[in-house]
Amino acid sequence: MPIIHRTAATLAAASAVLSLAAPVARASGASESPLSWGSCQGTGLDSRQRCATVSVPLDYSRPHGEQITIAVSRIAGEQPGQRRGVLLLIPGGPGGSGLNGPSSAVKRLPQAVRDAYDIVGFDPRGVGRSTPVSCDLAHEDLSMVRLRPWPAPDGGIARNVETARRIATTCNDVVWPRSTAGYQQAVTTDRAAHPLTAGMPVNVMPCSFWPAPPAEAPVEVTPDGPSNILLVQNLRDPATPFSGALRLREAFGARARMVAVDSGGHDAYLANGNACGDRTVTDFLLNGRRPARDVLCR
């Protein structure tokens, strides 16, 4: 489910985790929203999900310059008197749509969490119903095997390198330099988990050849700051390895606790039937309680 499965805190450790600030109790009743909420388009949606758009700068260094729109959605908390705040669902990808994430999330979230939180999703800039962007790539470059490259049967990646270099050069010419900053990070790859070919599960991607420098400096994770962070990570995540989560945990120091779930896959919370992990995260969401020390949930 998106709240976890593509959540998280890739940061320097490139580790997919659930990173949550401790919930803070709110006054009864949802605050008034300046957005104009209306019906959402799509099939199979929860009838309570409502949609709106938000104006944001195209270039954050020019906050009063050209504006674009971001599509957002919300399923309001079911018990306003118990409201604690908002759970923002991160669609992941990069390039994934998250607008209808709330309709999926409420099917799994415990009732007590649905009572206490507004569940909010969105389409990132350039995706879905948000203002579009196009690199004018050839149709074949949009296939998933190009965007998530696999090695050749002999383990070779020469074709992937050529494709990644071409896509990076083409997309760098678009007018969205700051909105694509997330692509300007190096990609961490995982050697183990699913040996489907002679090479790694995924390998070189366009960010490896991005010709422009990062729009912003990397975020430095330090032990300085509020001690209210909970990290959740599967032991056998093929996309974002556990080793990365350990590095992120070390960087946070006493600010964080980590819940390690003895499972494979990229989803952690409410995805594997792991009662220990699910219970620990739910308790954190509802009561702001973190475990006294890191937890291994088998």
Give structural notes.
By secondary structure, the chain is an alpha/beta fold. Helix content is 19%, strand content 16%. Among the domains are: 139-173 and 179-209, no CATH class; 229-297, no CATH class. The protein has seven helices and eight strands, in the order H-E-E-E-E-H-H-E-H-H-E-H-E-H-E. A four-stranded mixed β-sheet has the order 1-6-7-8, with helices on both faces. Strand 6 (229-236), helix 6 (242-252) and strand 7 form a beta-alpha-beta unit. The two termini are 20 Å apart.
Essential attributes:
298 residues, alpha/beta, 4-stranded mixed beta sheet, 7 helices, globular, disordered N terminus
Number of discrete helical segments: 7
* Total strand segments: 8
> Per the principal axes of the C-alpha atoms, what is the gross shape?
globular
* Structure class: alpha/beta
Strand order of the biggest β-sheet: 1-6-7-8
* Amount of helix: 10-25%
Rg is 20 Å
**Mean pLDDT metric:** 81
Instruction: Give helix and strand order, one letter per element, not per position.
Output: HEEEEHHEHHEHEHE
Low-confidence stretches: 1-30, 177-191, 193-200
End-to-end Cα distance, whole Å, is 20 Å
Largest pleated sheet: 4 strands, mixed
- β-strand percent reads 15-25%
